[in-house]
Amino acid sequence: MPDAADALLVIDMQVDFLPGGALAVPQGDALVPGINTLMAGFGAVILTQDWHPAGHSSFASRYADRRPFDSVEMPYGPQVLWPDHCVQGTPGAAFAPGLRTDGDLILRKGFRPGIDSYSAFFENDRATPTGLEGYLRTRGIERLTLVGLAFDFCVGFSALDAAALGFEVTVRRDLCRAIDMDGSEAEAARAMDAAGVRL
Ligand code: VGL
Ligand code: ZN
To answer: Is any ligand 1 atom within 6 A of the Cβ of residue 84?
Structure first.
């Protein structure tokens, strides 16, 4: 019997993050069967969806003098600029082909034009909540297992926030893949380990 206090969080398993997508994460597509199998063992399954309006402030195409993977200073701090990706309602924002999407909640994030959201809990100003904490707490969920994309961005920030909020957090590294720019994969692993996240 799945324990009602355990939830699986499936992060950003979307077409644009798969090989061939706008912001492809190597081997992202290889995770689908394993994640589908894992879902069956959980009492609560939540999927997140990166969900940007066209012209989002995290898109390098918004800035005449910037390229994807440059960094800019936003009012809330440094922000990496990305290729246009996961634009609301486009095929690239859809879930990965073959992924089970019959979970309990689909949480969309990154929909505010002026602010990016890596974490499923807080936007990149580290202050604006997505509402996920309240959802989990009111359901009595205490333990979270995270899988999906990308290990060093949305999975990592979500895991760190979940640990800081007091959830017991496990990241199934075998069911994640990283973008890995400038050593970001190792840095994310180090930060999660230091925060008490089980890897
Ligand atoms: C992500 C960069 C930009 C992710 C989303 O899902 O890790 N990374 N938007
Ligand atoms: Zn994004």
So the answer is: no
